[in-house]
Design brief:
This protein is an alpha/beta fold and 295 residues long. It contains eleven helices and ten strands. The protein starts with a strand and ends in a 27-residue tail after the last helix. The model has no long low-confidence stretch (mean pLDDT 95).
């Protein structure tokens, strides 16, 4: 139930554990707890600043490296062919592993797409060398995927995008499906909708949605569990994050119930089409220049 096969035959757990916005101090212990809970897929990124602690959490757990699927991301300041090969070296030093299961580009960065192409070409080399087991992208929309396909050879195994009941990106999901790319949800339980900047214009937190609350009550589950089940039943991967042991366990407890077609349709109908996170085509690219340290 929790396994999904990527387009290159690599199998990974569909439900992963995310460490976005987890401080370095929190990350190692949260990863240890997640692994002891049963997660076998951890998602981090160079830009999160906690790859080293993610690796430490795995070592603390005592679980063998080959039992855990590790996913991380190359940040835009490391895009370009040689730069991305070096980014892989930085990531493996911090993680403490020689091989990465899934390495993806964190943004399409359309304003500097030549560097994006160079970065993806480097991922193709790392894949061919066996340094990574699969490669992919994040925050790519249909036109970014089209532009990438025109210039590269390997179809991405996965596209990680903002995806929750209030912003489901059906066109991106369709574009992924047409190419055999797995859609993976970041902010899968609408964490982005908890932020004051999101709610400040009158929008509501998806966790407080009455439709999801009704389904959760009927199922004896939490709203978060209902949303994660909604992703998994539709064939997506989801990466919830928490540093709270109780929430970590709750988010993994989604394999003992099934939503009906009507319940899924009711959740699908909640889509507002309004993005909570940064627009991949947005004009403010200042964050792209953040440098990723060597250690």
């Amino acid at each position: 139930m929790n396994e999904i096969t990527l387009n290159n035959g690599v199998t990974m757990p569909a439900l992963g554990f995310g460490v976005f916005q987890s401080t370095p101090e929190e990350t190692a212990e949260a990863v240890r707890v997640a692994l002891e809970t049963g997660y076998r897929h951890i998602d981090t990124a160079a830009a999160y600043g906690n790859e080293k602690q993610m690796g430490e959490g795995l070592r603390r757990s005592g679980i063998a490296r080959d039992e855990v699927f590790i996913e991380t991301k190359v940040w835009v300041s490391d895009f370009g062919y040689e730069q991305t090969l070096h980014a892989f070296e930085k990531a493996t030093r911090k993680l403490g592993f020689d091989q990465i299961d899934l390495l993806i580009l964190h943004q399409p960065a359309p304003s500097r797409f030549e560097q994006t192409i160079g970065a993806y070409t480097a991922l193709e080399k790392l894949l061919a060398d066996g340094s990574v087991r699969s490669i992919g992208v994040s925050n790519f929309m249909r036109h970014h995927l089209d532009d990438l396909a025109a210039r590269t050879t390997v179809v991405p195994a996965l596209n990680q995008i903002e995806l929750h009941p209030y912003f489901a990106q059906p066109d991106v999901q369709a574009a992924d499906a047409e190419r055999g790319i797995l859609t993976q949800a970041w902010s899968p339980i609408g964490g982005i909708t908890f932020y004051p900047a999101y709610a400040g214009d009158g929008r509501a937190s998806v966790m407080q949605d009455s439709t999801i609350g009704e389904i959760a009550d009927a199922r004896g589950k939490t709203p978060a569990q209902v949303m994660l089940r909604w992703h998994l039943q539709q064939g997506r991967s989801a990466i919830p994050k928490s540093t709270n042991p109780k929430r970590i366990a709750e988010n993994f407890d989604v394999f003992d119930f099934e939503l009906s077609a009507d319940e899924i349709a009711r959740i699908n109908a909640l889509d507002t089409g309004v993005r909570g996170g940064p627009d991949p085509d947005g004009s403010d690219t200042s964050r792209f220049d953040r440098l990723i340290p060597e250690e």
